[in-house]
Structure formats: C-alpha cells, structure tokens
Amino acid sequence: MKYNRRHFLKTAGVTAAGLITSQLPLSTAHAVSSKPTEAQSVMGLIAPKMATVRVGFIGVGQRGSGHVKHFCHLEGIEIKAICDTDESVLDKSIEFVQAQGLPRPGRYTDNEHAYKELLSRDDIDIVIISTPWEWHAPMAIDTMESGKHAFVEVPLALTVEECWQIIDTAERTRKNCMMMENVNYGRDELMVLNMVRQGVFGELLHGEAAYIHELRWQMKEIDRKTGSWRTGWHAKRNGNLYPTHGLGPVSQYMNINRGDRFDYLTSMSSPALGRALYAEREFPSEHQRNQLNYINGDMNTSLIKTVNGRSIMVQHDTTTPRPYSRHNLIQGTNGVFAGFPNRIAIEQGGSGNFHKWDMDMENWYAKYDHPLWLQMGKEAERNGGHGGMDFLMLWRMVYCLRNGEPLDQDVYDGAAWSVVNILSEESVNNRSNSVNFPDFTRGAWKTGKPLGIVGL
C-alpha cells in the first residue's frame, strides 16, 4: 500500500492514538508492563472451530498479492474483501481471485483508512495485513477491536509501546494476533526443530540468527514497491531493522516464551557507508536518494542473553555485497547445525568426527524431516513462496483455525522477536550498553508449553 506518514500521524484515529511513539523515551515505554485487570494470557489461545475461514486482506502489493494467490488454493476458506490504496495492485488481486472461479471480493480503496470499512463487515473472521511497517500495529489493533483475528507481516511493531498495546488488545478481546514469520515453516528449520526436540544436539547453549540480504537495488523503487518506503528506515534508525526471519526459528528451538525468555541485549553497528556510496554511484547528485543521511550501520550485530543463560547472536545487513544468509545455527552439548550452506557436526549419533562438517543432508532429511513437511512438503513446494514456506505457513494457520488448535506463533512471540529492532537501536546509541527485554508474557513464560512436533 502507498502511505503518507504525515497524514497518518494526523488522522490515525482513536484506536491508533499514541501508537507511533518513536519520540517517547524508551525507558518510559519499557515501564508499560502492568496487565489490564480484565485481561488474561492468550498463550495457547484456542479460537472456536471455524468450518469455513472467511478472510479479508489489507495490502496486496508485492507481499500481500502472494498471500491472496496462496489462499485461493487452500480448502475451507472464503475470500470476502481486499483493501489497498493502490488500485492497480488491488484490481490485479481481485481479478486473480475471480479467475480461480471464486466469487468477486469486496473492494476497498478510497483513502488510507478504507481498511476500517473492510473491518466493519461482519462476514470476515481473519484479516491478513501486508502493509508498510508503521501500519502494522494500528491495523492489528483495529482488526482485533473489530472482533477479528489479526495476521500481520513482519515486524509486528516498531516501538515497545506498540508491542504492549497489541498484547493488551489481544488479551482483552481474546483474539489471535500472529506475526506471520514464514521462515519457521522452511524445511530445514522444521527439521532442526524436530532434531532439537529429539535431543540430537544435547542441551542447547547458543544460537545464531541473521538477515543478510543485499537489498540496495530496492533504493531504485522510488514511488512504488517495497523500496519506496523501506529505504527511508536506513535514515531513521541505527540498529537491527529486520530481526525476525533468523530469530524466529532459533527462538522456537530454544523454547523462548515457553520455559525461557530473552533477558537482555547488547548491540553494535558498523559504519553506515554502503547506501550513500550506492546512491552516489547510481543516482544523480540532486536525486532524493542522495539527500538522505543514511545512519543505519551496514552490519548490525546484537547479542542476546536468555534468562536460562543461553546466548544468541543476531545480525542484520541488507547493504553489503555478500551471499544471502540467515545463519540458522544452533549449538548444543552434543553438536551443532548451521545453515547457508547446511552442515552438521555431532559427537554422538553422527559420523563420529565432530571436527569435520557433514554437508550431506539427505540422510538427515530421511531421519528427521518434520511431519508437517512429510505430509505437505510437496504441495508446499508446488505452490511456492520462498521454497514452499509461505504456503505451508498459511495452510497451517487455516488448519489450526478450522480444527480448534492453538497457533504455532502467538502475540508474545511476535512482540519478543520484533522488539529487537527497538532495543538494538537503544543499545547502539548508548555505547552498546545492555538493554533489558520487557517480559511481554508477564511471567507466563515460566509455565508455557514448548512448541511440539505436530502432525496432521
């Protein structure tokens, strides 16, 4: 969706008031931790079974349009309405739905708050939100306030205050608010989760997560597409702008919010050089890309300590020329798995030589492929979306809703993984001094049940 930040700040409305709090002292936002008296935890929340899941979409640009296509191939759903301020992408998605022989969805596009008209409908159960980052929290809150479940693209929120307001709303309305971290549904990530649960790596000690993805080319997207709004964040913050893709799977390996939780973080950034050099090389001197002051370090490295003493390294780099990586490393007392490329070293139960990487994954897949992938992997790969993880995530969401099962990710996960964005900035700006994580679960992490290995 297109957006005008100034207009948004002026007109966001009552439910969004106070959500954009980047000018508030972070220490003030950290203090927002008291549970509303009428609320109770939504950890393990089970919504009433839905024979048919009725869906609305807000935002169908580069990301959201893919979600629409995948939903068209899922059983037990009805696509009721689609909203986007860009009429060209909106109409393409509507036409695609109709081309599949499905009824024409409702169309909402008049203004930046047309999504509220979609939310006023009483024939929608869940809403898929795929908009620029600063809209995620207000739209998720408005969705739950309208009596619907919210499914939000990453990150869930951009301030600590937003995280708390989303959690408070979810607990009060008893609605799911899931950040759609698709990487948790990759074949490798699911296999490693299965291996961890079976004790292959022993007791877990350390993890490494990353989003290393050269995206300078997005700077050439000026008026449309992701780069038109994402580029600006490199001139607003200096920290880890996008932590969840690598951190989500490692968090699930370590039972974060389900027996352990993030305790504190320290972060540092390299110089911010690459974006300015790219702009100077690729654009005229007077171009708007050369007028930005790029402050986000080309490489950010954050270290997280958990309450149970484990360590996690999280890195972010979308600027330097290097191969893609999410690291996806998990180290235990009996060995290690690392991704990009995939490799394993195990003391007991492997080749017997933990000084040498085993890079042949076929035997490991044969023994430890996750039941979800065994059942749905071929279908997921056929439908596509980052190797099938997108389709499998959406399929699993619908499956849980239709069968009365708790979702694999909850609002506390989305908040904990996303808040690294804000806390890393605070640490970087304070000579890398450590910053405490809020306990978004308000103590419920101590008794939370680890994510199990589920079949169909």
Describe the structure.
The protein has 456 residues and is of the alpha/beta class. The chain contains 16 helices and 14 strands.
The secondary structure category is: alpha/beta
| Cα distance spanning the termini | 35 Å
- What string gives the helices and strands in order? HHEHEHEHEHEHEHEHHEHEEEEEHHHHHE
Task: Please report the total strand number as a whole number.
Answer: 14
Number of helices: 16
The parts where pLDDT drops under 50 for at least 5 residues are: 1-29
Query: What is the strand arrangement across the widest sheet?
Result: 13-12-11-7-10-9-8-14
Features:
456 residues; single chain; disordered N terminus; 16 helices; 8-stranded mixed sheet; alpha/beta; 6-stranded parallel sheet
How is the topology of this model organized?
Blueprint: H1 5-11, H2 26-30, E1 53-58, H3 64-71, E2 77-83, H4 87-99, E3 106-108, H5 115-119, E4 126-129, H6 136-145, E5 149-152, H7 160-173, E6 177-179, H8 187-197, E7 204-212, H9 227-230, H10 244-253, E8 262-269, H11 274-282, E9 300-306, E10 311-317, E11 329-332, E12 335-338, E13 343-346, H12 362-368, H13 371-383, H14 389-403, H15 411-418, H16 420-428, E14 435-436
Parallel strand pairs: 1-2, 1-4, 2-3, 4-5, 5-6, 7-10
Antiparallel strand pairs: 7-11, 8-9, 8-14, 9-10, 11-12, 12-13
Helix pairs in contact: 6-7, 7-15, 10-15, 13-14
